[in-house]
Design goal:
The structure is a homodimer of 350-residue chains.
Chain A (H helix, E strand, L loop, with lengths): L2 H4 L2 H11 L15 E3 L6 E9 L10 H18 L3 E11 L5 H17 L3 E9 L5 E9 L19 E4 L5 H10 L3 E5 L2 E6 L11 H12 L5 H9 L5 E4 L4 H12 L2 E5 L19 H7 L6 E5 L13 E7 L5 E4 L5 E3 L11
Parallel strand pairs in A: 3-4, 10-13
Antiparallel strand pairs in A: 2-5, 3-5, 6-11, 6-12, 7-8, 9-11, 10-12, 13-14
Helix pairs in contact in A: 2-4, 3-4, 3-7, 5-6
Chain lengths: 350, 350
């Protein structure tokens, strides 16, 4: 916990002030070499994810949403395990050109998600970067039970279990494409109030409302913490993963960890309403839903006897777990199955 | 814990193999969205530190030692709290030009320190970087007692307590200067076996043995975990901090957190034997010891009644805690005190 050690005092004061009662109490916490956390009754969960400028975001994107997203994508990993987040550390490596205003907005974004999900700042590290801006976050969470096995994992899916997702897919990837095509969000008081068309204007008629929804899905994803908690605490799901890299690749990971195959029903795959905004960009909507990534919905499997418990939950059935031998397949409306192509975001392969 | 999700399979296999029984068991741990850690009996410690290329290291430095140092500097924060490390996460953002051989060496360095201190890899994140190489590490530790207050902190020093350091200072900064001046380590089987002079050769006669020691102090610091554990478990130290940024600035931080002043005895400050190697560079040895940084020794305070318990420990007395009103002073051999200049490494101020 080295914020004060390597940090500029003013920035630290900003952090303390903006996090309010979610900041670590001084001098403990942010002022010591480590954060001290009370022992947890259940298992301790730890996860880390970094966002690197040009790889995961661009400097012209609103820094308030960047701060929100940096914390949200980590919370999504806690959601996938059915855990409850308790605290987090964040590391910033800052290029020299970054303005104080930009940092304040970024920190406010972090602080807003921290308050929404009651996850306290425990500390972090500040450094310079001679290149891109780098944000790394580590989250500490817990599961309510004594046994560490009481958390969800990727490995519990068995043939016959139903496959579900928690919401529409492809919206975030559509938003990324639209931002890359020159659409620009208009903000007021940190709310997305409009969207500006690229110039020259696109020839296709694209509905601004769909563009705004796609851009919002990309810039400000919501971690599915409440759902993950219910799926674990109610012992409903047999396996879960969050959709960070794309349905096809994240399903392949869950299937591999569980030693199973999976059959997806093509017309059942929910495509986010916003994806129509990308029609003018020449992209097949299903491709965005299958391979787009960054939706941060949960993908989970449920044994047949538990499917009745899903009534009040966000759970859209999209297929069924099959034997490993059958592999990963996509079933057309007519019943014919073909192999599911697995594609998605792999940072080291681009 | 997203190594497999965003990572290249081959690199992950390397990581698993090189960490051996210190790697997380598959599919749990590295294969899930979070690491699951058994609940700790005592307080949970968390700390994070990042190393950024060009800020903290240069690409031409041996990657094996870079891996070792990345983990060691984080362990040093656990040592400063008197904790015992249990596990860690690491995040790498890799420029495209990094060779596989370089990464293997870096990972071997991490794995070697992981084995030496019984700290298990819990997971991490891999990404690309369009600029410098980033390494961010988060360590999880514990203190043996039920009460979180049983860890050491920066805030317990009181007027009258003795001030101690655990070893000679300035060696690491001397090593950095010598590397910058063109001296190059010669390695065989990852051991430093010699040193190559810069060309043109320096005019001063510099002892190669001192240069090697200084370079080793810089490239391969040793976290003072055993000492920190003893100072806490024996309830010997009233406050502690690790010397990452320099004696003067780290003492100022400890004094501020404790609400006290401090008087250092100038001739008592231990200057590392290697610092003489820098004589030819025109640097005052005491300046390196006071302001050099990266020594990763412990600085700690001890109440008078406990000083007898230091007999078998690495503890060099260098001064005494005074009232806050008296500030920070440096006392000459003759007894005269002058204000201690506080300078040191601040990543955001360079």
């Amino acid at each position: 916990v080295n914020l004060p050690r390597q940090g500029e005092r003013g920035l630290l004061e900003t952090i303390r002030r903006r996090f309010g009662d979610h900041a670590p109490p001084a001098p403990r916490g942010m002022g010591d070499d480590c954060a001290v956390v009370s022992p947890s009754a259940g298992g301790v969960l730890l996860t880390t994810d970094c966002l690197v400028e040009q790889e995961h975001f661009r400097r012209e994107e609103p820094p308030y949403f960047l701060g929100r997203k940096a914390l949200a994508v980590n919370l999504s990993d806690i959601a996938a395990m059915g855990g409850d987040p308790t605290g987090f550390l964040f590391t910033l490596a800052l290029p020299r050109g970054v303005k104080r205003r930009y940092l304040d907005e970024l920190i406010d974004g972090l602080a807003s998600v921290s308050r929404e999900h009651h996850v306290h700042l425990l500390g972090g590290d500040l450094s310079r970067s001679s290149g891109p801006l780098f944000i790394s976050i580590t989250i500490l969470g817990r599961t309510g039970d004594r046994s560490a096995r009481a958390s969800l994992s990727r490995s519990g899916a068995r043939a016959g279990h139903g496959i579900y997702v928690s919401g529409g897919l492809g919206g975030s990837a559509a938003g990324r494409m639209l931002l890359d095509a020159g659409w620009r969000p208009r903000l007021r008081n940190r709310s997305l109030i409009g969207i500006t068309r690229p110039r020259p204007a696109p020839v296709d008629r694209i509905r601004h409302r769909s563009v705004m929804r796609a851009v919002r899905r990309h810039l400000d994803p919501s971690p599915r913490l409440a759902l993950g908690h219910q799926l674990r605490a109610g012992r409903i799901a047999s396996a879960a993963i969050d959709l960070s890299d794309g349905l096809s690749i994240d399903l392949a990971r869950l299937a591999e960890a569980s030693g199973v195959g999976a059959n997806l029903i093509r017309p059942a795959i929910p495509i986010d309403d916003s994806v129509r905004a990308c029609a003018g960009l020449g992209i097949e909507p299903l491709d965005l839903a299958l391979h787009g990534g960054e939706d941060y919905e949960l993908l989970f499997t449920v044994p047949p006897g538990k499917e009745k418990d899903l009534a009040d939950l966000d759970a859209i059935p999209i297929g069924r777990v099959v034997s490993r031998r059958q592999g990963l397949t996509l079933q057309e409306a007519g019943g014919r199955r073909r192999a599911l192509r697995v594609r998605g975001y792999d940072h080291l392969r681009r």
